[in-house]
Design a protein that fits this description.
Blueprint: H1 3-9, H2 13-23, E1 28-31, E2 35-37, E3 42-46, H3 52-58, E4 61-67, E5 71-72, H4 75-98, E6 106-110, E7 120-126
């Protein structure tokens, strides 16, 4: 089921808003990160933040599939990768697909998880050229 497709197809703004809120209540979140520091810290940037509730709180099980090309030495390098490499490529990609660009409006810096949250986080590192 492609929830995003269903949500975007809803023309009633109130119903669409309700669907977005319901979509963040998932037991699992499968996604990626924009840069992963060697110490395990990572960054995720977003224009609208639609995926960020899962990353920071709502989903108890996080699974990230991450290309090894996204591994950088430090968190500072991760931020530089996000701002100087990923965002310009994503902006050009969005303009080509939708005729409208993107901005780096929200950034999550993930340094760890509180044991009180009892969440699991799995990083699956792949030696493939995935994403930007």
């Amino acid at each position: 089921i492609n929830l995003k497709e269903e949500i975007l197809a809803e023309k009633d703004p109130a119903k669409q808003s309700q669907l977005w809120r319901q979509a963040v209540a998932s037991d699992y979140y499968l996604g990626s990160v924009h840069a992963l520091a060697q110490n395990g810290e990572f960054v995720v940037g977003s224009n609208t933040a639609s995926q960020l509730p899962h990353v920071v709180f709502s989903s108890p099980n996080l699974i990230f599939v991450v290309s090894t090309k996204k591994i950088v030495p430090t968190l500072e390098d991760a931020m530089q990768r996000l701002e100087e490499y990923v965002e310009p490529l994503e902006d050009a990609h969005m303009k080509k697909l939708y005729g409208v660009g993107t901005k780096l409006n929200k950034i999550v810096i993930f340094k760890g998880e509180s044991p009180y949250n009892k969440r699991t986080l799995r990083m699956i590192l792949v030696k493939e050229d995935l994403g930007f």
